[in-house]
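queue> pop job 88
queue> type: inverse folding (structure -> sequence)
queue> payload:
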């Protein structure tokens, strides 16, 4: 087999100077009085106490949406939005040993900056560049320091708008992951766009996170090999990346994904685009670490990925649930199966992760968290931004050219990003970080093990 279309994105000469100048920064508070309260955070929220930065790039628009106008529109829209999302204007606190959000109207950051570059001088927008973080937090020094500050002093969210010489601009958002998962963040963006357009909220957020409370008494009814207690050694996927890591972007076209589906058909019952891409990446990453026959063929490898549980609980969560309603699903295979087993078995192993994530299993995970402060544990975690649809949000000045997280490559984490609009909407980019030699080997495996349509499954 082999000879597919998969294209490796050659390492880009990443820009290291945005020629950025911060013009002003301020704190925005809700435009109307909000009730002071302590907001409960679920066990899922508790684990996700870290920052996430996203950058949304926009081309120059109509004259009515010049940069100064956009700044004022966004400023007003954010202040209005904080009435419904009052917790965003709050601060983290510890009450009785648990994190809560003190909804105290302390506000969010809002910075305005300008770059001496045009957007087309930034390079490929979809090729992650760590310097893009300056587009999300340059005007707020406290955000640069991460969570080293006292929680009472740390904004849970900040916004930054940056103009470029071409008339385009970037909207950067830096927020604590405890505030949103990807699905509720998409709804937040839609509400921001609706208010920016002078309308009302697109959806009213549901903010009672007690729906994901621990049962009384907690009942762990399943084994959870995908989790490790906090008292155990820190998972390597949470550790800082070693300096010898290189990272590269690999692009799967629609034809590549179709070829993988064909390889899994008819044996795999759920050869979705996500499942076949994850299975392919999983096996290639395993093989690049052990180019010869596996020394321990029966050793188990675990792949992890996030699953939305809103519709999987009984009763289901409201679709408008604003918070973290995702849990870590897992698939398992032996080293021998990854090296020589049929591809469709790996696809089924990935699919079983989501299949087992039903009400009782999800409740068992949440209850496990009340007994053991822990983290996901696996050989590879696939974090997917593929179908979140942030770039589909329609603002009064149009949709983004591209929306991306500011990536922090980790050896055991693979990030999936959508292809840039207009190029191949059915494709996906995979960001992989490994030592140079392993990365070269991974790239060759990714291509050589990709079948042509028509290959025998």
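queue> result:
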């Amino acid at each position: 087999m082999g000879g597919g279309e998969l294209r490796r994105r050659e390492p880009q000469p990443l820009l290291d100077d945005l020629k950025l100048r911060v013009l002003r920064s301020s704190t925005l508070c809700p435009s109307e009085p909000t009730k002071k309260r302590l907001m409960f955070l679920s066990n899922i929220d508790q684990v996700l106490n870290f920052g996430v930065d996203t950058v949304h790039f926009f081309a120059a628009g109509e004259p009515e949406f010049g940069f100064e106008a956009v700044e004022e529109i966004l400023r007003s829209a954010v202040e209005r939005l904080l009435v419904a999302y009052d917790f965003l204007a709050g601060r983290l606190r510890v009450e009785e040993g648990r994190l809560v959000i003190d909804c105290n109207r302390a506000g969010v950051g809002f910075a305005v900056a300008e770059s001496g570059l045009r957007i087309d001088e930034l390079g490929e927008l979809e090729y992650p560049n760590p310097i893009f973080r300056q587009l999300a937090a340059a005007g707020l020094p406290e955000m640069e320091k991460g969570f080293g500050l006292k929680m009472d002093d740390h904004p849970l969210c900040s916004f930054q708008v940056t103009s470029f010489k071409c008339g385009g601009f970037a909207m950067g958002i830096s927020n604590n992951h405890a505030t949103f998962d990807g699905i509720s963040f998409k709804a937040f963006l839609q509400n921001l766009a609706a208010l920016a357009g002078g309308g009302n909220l697109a959806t009213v957020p549901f903010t009672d996170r007690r729906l994901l409370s621990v049962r009384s008494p907690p009942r762990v009814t399943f084994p959870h090999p995908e989790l490790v207690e906090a008292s155990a050694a820190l998972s390597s996927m949470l550790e800082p990346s070693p300096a010898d890591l290189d990272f590269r972007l690999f692009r799967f076209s629609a034809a590549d994904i179709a070829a993988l589906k064909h390889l899994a058909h008819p044996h795999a019952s759920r050869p979705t685009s996500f499942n076949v891409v994850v299975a392919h990446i999983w096996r290639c990453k395993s093989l690049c670490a052990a180019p010869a026959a596996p020394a321990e063929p029966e050793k188990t490898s675990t792949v992890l990925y996030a699953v939305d549980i809103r519709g999987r609980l009984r009763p289901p969560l409201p679709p408008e649930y604003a918070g973290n309603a995702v849990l870590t699903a897992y698939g398992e295979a032996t080293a021998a199966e990854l090296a020589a087993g049929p591809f469709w078995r790996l696809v089924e192993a990935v699919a079983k992760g989501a299949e087992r994530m039903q009400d009782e299993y999800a409740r068992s995970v949440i209850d496990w968290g009340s007994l053991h402060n822990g983290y996901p544990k696996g050989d590879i975690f696939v974090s997917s931004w593929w179908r979140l649809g942030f770039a589909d949000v329609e603002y009064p000045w149009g949709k983004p050219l591209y929306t991306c997280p500011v990536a922090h490559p980790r050896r055991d984490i693979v990030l999936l990003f959508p292809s840039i609009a207009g190029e191949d909407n059915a494709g996906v980019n995979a960001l992989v970080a490994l030592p140079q030699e392993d990365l070269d080997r991974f790239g060759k495996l990714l291509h050589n093990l990709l079948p042509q349509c028509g290959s025998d499954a």
